[in-house]
Structure formats: C-alpha cells, structure tokens
Write a structure and sequence with these properties.
The protein is an alpha+beta fold. The protein is 53% helix and 15% strand. The chain is built from 11 helices and 4 strands; from the N terminus they run αααββαββααααααα. A 4-stranded antiparallel β-sheet has the order 1-2-4-3. β1 (32-39) and β2 (43-52) form a beta hairpin. α5 (93-104) runs antiparallel to α6 (111-123). The radius of gyration is 21 Å and the shape is globular. The termini are far apart. Residues 1-6 have low confidence and may be disordered.
C-alpha cells in the first residue's frame, strides 16, 4: 500500500491522518470503559469513556465523535509521580446509543460491555424531564437562592426536581461561588 510521507504527517492534523471508527474502537478496546448502573426502574447512569495520559489523542477522539466532554484528573497525593489522566466521557443517552452502535462494528474485547450499555440506553426513556430546569431558572436565580435565600444545594435540588450534584455542577459551570466550610457550618448551626 501507499505510505504517508513524513511531511504529510507534519502538516496534517491527527484527526485527518488516523481517525476512523476502526481506530476509535481499537483505542476503546485498549483504553475504554463501557459502564452502566441501574438506579431503580427509570433512572440509569451510563457512559462510554476513553482514558489516556496523552491529551492530544483524547481531544482528537472527542473531535471525531462530536460529543461528550473531556476532563483531566490531576496527580493525587499518594501517586504524585503519575501523569495527569485525560478522560473523554460520553453520557447523554442519544450520544451513547449513536457511538455504541458505531463501536460495535469494530470492537472485540469490550463488545459485551458495549452491548450491555446499549441495551440499557435503548431501554431508557428519553431525556430526563427535569433536564434544563436549572438553566430555565438562570444563573442569577440560582445565585440568589443560594446566597440571598441561604438555601443549600439539596434544598435547591429538591425545589427543581434535580440532584444536589446537578445543582453543584450547574453552579461550577456558571461560575457561582459556593460558601466556605466555615460559612456552611455557621448557617447549619444558626438553623438548628
């Protein structure tokens, strides 16, 4: 077959040279995770993920699949000599279904895990009916409830029908600062 010249490799992006579903599936077989956890009858958590210390490869896969988000896990205190890990996580149901179907045509090692995640994803109802409720209220309203009304994350979550974690993530994404531990303890003591 015709090879790729070194000059071509230097001038083309990683996605132009190497990316196709076969490559993505091979990478997944070696470095990927297909995970699902049943949380009762209608609430399931699932994702497809790739992990590697090379950020460029994870970013290239992210660009190719066109969905998910990349997170970086920093060194921990116990293993400070470890390199940071970069993780591409796809967790939206419709994206998991689309990507899982593409991977199935090529995966060997993690085929059964992908089939399990795909079965769970296809059995789930469409998007969470509470998705977007925090966004509809807007960052200023969430900020007001947290700081002015002195509501905690759980109380805000209960009001909007979402989890405490969803409220925390929304606040992080919208740069809403949170109370320090001392401020939180003072509010808790004042309320009891």
């Amino acid at each position: 077959g015709k090879g790729v010249s070194l000059e071509c490799v230097r001038t083309r992006s990683v996605t132009e040279i190497f990316m196709d579903w076969g490559y993505i599936a091979g990478y997944f077989d070696g470095e990927g995770t297909a995970w699902c956890n049943k949380r009762g009858k209608s609430h399931n958590a699932l994702y497809l993920g790739w992990v590697n210390t090379n950020r460029e490869s994870i970013d290239a896969i992210h660009a190719f699949v066109g969905c998910g988000h990349v997170r970086t896990r920093r060194k921990d205190r116990v293993n400070a000599h470890y390199k940071p890990l970069h993780c591409l996580v796809i967790s939206r149901r419709s994206d998991v279904i689309r990507v899982a179907k593409e991977l199935l045509a090529h995966c060997i090692i993690k085929r059964e895990a992908i089939l399990k995640v795909l079965a769970v994803a296809e059995g789930m109802s469409d998007e969470n009916p509470n998705r977007g409720k925090l966004a509809a209220a807007g960052p200023e309203e969430i900020r007001r409830r947290y700081w002015d009304d002195k509501s905690n994350l759980q109380e805000i979550g209960d009001e909007f029908g979402v989890t405490r974690g969803a409220v925390k993530n929304y606040m992080v994404r919208n740069n809403i600062s949170r109370r320090s531990l001392q401020e939180g303890l003072a509010l808790y003591r004042a309320g009891t």
